[in-house]
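Hi R.,

Here's the chain you asked about this morning:
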Amino acid sequence: MFQPVIPIGGLGGWRFLQQTYDSQFKAFTQSTQLQRGSDYFRENINKITSAEELVADRRLLTVALGAFGLQDDINSKFFIRKILEEGTVNDDALANRFSDPRYKEMSQAFGFGPGEFLKVAEPVFAEAIIDRFERIEFEVAAGQQNESMRFALYAEREMGSLAADDMSNDAKWFTLMGEPPLRNLFEKALNLPKAFGQIDLDQQLSVFKDKA
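And the predicted structure, written out as tokens:
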């Protein structure tokens, strides 16, 4: 499987990765292992009618979770099934209880919950999920070469959409604070101590805003 090339660290490595991203990403997505996973998802996701069926198929679940950066939850089938089945319409739905927005995004994307409509058979659904999956897999692979590059790629992908989101400035900061990769990046960029996350949330918000 193709592995991203990052010859040096720091700003020089980041600039090299930006300049070669398109060619490296193309080579990465053409690898046999990744294409098999994407093709399987493309051919079978429209047959799924319930969250139970999705979590029962490990190959489909791998792509589904990977598309939202939740690949570490691959063995937490009951938990993921609950996230999907409860949806996001009700305030007490499991996905809404997490500060990390990725669970809510995934649940909304599939539409298994009450008061939602199932989206897996829509013409653009499979390709949208596969595109996210492949980009995040590339980020993970880049992180195996240099962890900082994974955070930088993730931030480049996510920061624009967060900034454009229709919510208050404080809500955007709270979203960032609840998303581990973005939080990690900002804590390091702003030189915050490791124990920073243990103080009151409103104090954290104030510090983030002041330092930014």
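The chain has two domains: 10-164, 168-212.

Let me know if you need anything else.
M.
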